[in-house]
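>> Question from a student workshop board

For tomorrow's exercise we were told to take the sequence and the ligand below, predict the bound structure, and bring the output to class. My setup keeps failing. Could a helper post the expected result so I can at least see what it should look like? The ligand is flavin-adenine dinucleotide.
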Amino acid sequence: MRSLDVAVIGGGPAGAAIALRLARRGVDVALYEPSAYDQVRMGETLPPSINPLLRELRIWLDFVALGALVSHGTAAAWGGDEVTARSFLFCPYGNGWHVERARFDRMISKAAEKSGATLLPARVRRVRRAVGGFDIDAEIPARAAAIVDATGRAARISRGLGARHIRSDKLVCAARMFPQRADELLRDTFVEAVEHGWWYTAPLPDGQRIVACFTDAPIAARMELGTPEGWAAAAAAAEHIGPVTAGRATGPVRVVSAAAHRLHPCAGPGWLAAGDAALAMDPLSSGGVTSALRMAKAADDALLTGRRSPYAQLVEGLAVDYARQYSESYGWETRFPSADFWLARRMPSARCG
Ligand SMILES: Cc1cc2nc3c(=O)[nH]c(=O)nc-3n(C[C@H](O)[C@H](O)[C@H](O)COP(=O)(O)OP(=O)(O)OC[C@H]3O[C@@H](n4cnc5c(N)ncnc54)[C@H](O)[C@@H]3O)c2cc1C
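>> Workshop helper replied:
Here is what the output should look like for this input. Compare the format with yours to find the bug.
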C-alpha cells in the first residue's frame, strides 16, 4: 500500500490549493479526485477579492490563460423593484470574474501536480484511523499520516470521523444554461429577489449564460422547479429574469443542493476539513471559492505543525463574517414578510456563525 505524509481528498479549489501548498513545501502529498473535470461545475462568479489569493498562490498567470470573463460589478432587484448596481470600479482588488469552474478547478490541481503532488484519480469510500495515521479505502488505497477532507458540502470523510454537520437551511439551486445573446438585457451578474427565493444570472466564458433559481427544497418540489415547465413558469413570473428567458431555447434543468452548513469540529488529531466541507455558505455571498482559498492558506501550517487552533479560529472568523453578511443581505428584503423562504431566513438558526 502507498504511504503518504498527507492525503487530500477532493480536488475542488480547497483541496487542490492545499495539495499545491504542501507540495511546494516538500510534503509527500496525494490529491484524490475521481472526476476528470469534464462536467459542468457550479460556482462561476468570483469576486475581486479572489485576485490577491491567486497571486499569493502563484497561479495568476495560469488563471489569466484560462480566458475568464471580466465582471465589472453586480446589479440586483433586492429590497425593492428597482435595479441597483454596484460597480467594482473603486474596489482595491480590481474587477471580478466569470469562469468555467471545471477548468478553474483543473487549473489548480494541475499546478499542484506540477509542484510535486500526486494526483490519484479515485473516489475515497472511507477513511479509518490506523496506527500512525489513516487508512484510505479507495480504488487506489493508501495510508497517510494526515488527511484533509475537501470533498465539498457533503463532508462525508469528516462525518465518518465523528464530526457533526450543522445544517442551517435547505437551499437548492435549479439552473439552466442559455446561449448568450449580443443584445442581452442583463449583461453582468444580476440577482432578483422573489417571493419564493431569488434568481441569479451571469454570463460564462463559453458563450453560455446561467440562469438559476435558489429556494428551499420543499418549495422547489411544490413549484416543480426541476421540470422545464415548472422552471419556465417561475422564471416568467420574475419581473427582470422573465424577459431574459422568454422564448429562448434551452437545455434541461439541473437541481443541486446549495444548503449551508458548518462542521463541528472542523479539525481533529491528524485531520482537518477545508472549503465547503468545513463551512458551506449560501451562494448569495459569492464567497465560497475565496473562503476555500483562505482556508487552504492556513491549512498547510496546521497540518505541518499539528497546531489546530489558528486554523479553527480562521474558520470561525469566516463563519462570523458570513453570518453578519447573511443577516444584512436577507434583512434588506422586506417585501415578502409572510413568505416561507424569507421567514426561514429571519430565524437565528439560519446563520452559520
Ligand atoms: C449552486 C451553487 C452556486 C455557487 N456559486 C458560487 C459563486 O458564484 N461564487 C463562489 O465563489 N462560490 C459559489 N458557490 C460555492 C462554491 O462552489 C464552493 O464554495 C466551492 O466550490 C468550494 O470548494 P471546495 O473545494 O470546498 O468543494 P467543491 O468545489 O465542492 O469540490 C469538492 C471536490 O471533492 C471531490 N470529491 C467529492 N467526494 C469525493 C470522494 N469521496 N473522494 C474523492 N473526491 C471527492 C469532488 O469531485 C470535487 O472535485 C456556489 C455553490 C453552489 C452550490
